[in-house]
């Protein structure tokens, strides 16, 4: 058995004295593990950092075997990502989200979204918006997508400013007014597109994470006996601190 694919490094664990088991999210073969001979060496360590993109050749005698990886770097982002705390937390959290996908089950849209998110970590606010959108995409991929395009009560498509914590559907201003204290705020960047780097506030970002966090916990994590990763909280706190420093004149 042999195939070649593009992949993003999610994690690495040492195997024996010199080898490593590498976990990739690949474009066509999904989340997939393989053994890298010499993967624990100082020469290979820079390549096998989470967030890096690689070309992977996987070989095994049978399809169900762990198999061997031969990897070649194509975009080594890790050195840059390690330079900021929000990026370090963000990459760790993205890898944890990707591990919610079934092993060896292709999810090409998620792969492309992950790659785009990793390429845009320089601005903390932009990175936060991408990560919220990635969490929404993961909910959809896992069968628990939210309907933020139409009002859950009236079917309207305009003036959607709330989300129902029960149904996960958007709610218009008029329909939600009597129950506004029970509804979640729907930030503008999830209604109208991302816009520029200054088109959302810290509260908008926190509102976005509140929405995705609630439904990920309820539908995906708690049924598996899990909770949110520490990296998620670390990312949110790091983004808030960084944006706060940037706002100081």
TrEMBL record:
Pfam families cross-referenced by the UniProt entry: RecO_C, RecO_N
Cell membrane as UniProt keyword: no
Keyword vocabulary terms for this entry: DNA damage, DNA recombination, DNA repair
UniProt xrefs under InterPro entries: ARFGAP/RecO (IPR037278), DNA_rep/recomb_RecO_N (IPR022572), NA-bd_OB-fold (IPR012340), RecO (IPR003717), RecO_C (IPR042242)
Family that this chain belongs to: Belongs to the RecO family.
Full protein name: DNA repair protein RecO
Gene3D superfamilies: Nucleic acid-binding proteins, Recombination protein O, C-terminal domain
Domain (DNA replication/recombination mediator RecO N-terminal): residue spans on this chain: 1-67
The keyword DNA repair is annotated on this UniProt entry: yes
UniProt organism field: Bradyrhizobium brasilense
Function, as annotated: Involved in DNA repair and RecF pathway recombination.
Encoding gene, per UniProt annotation: recO
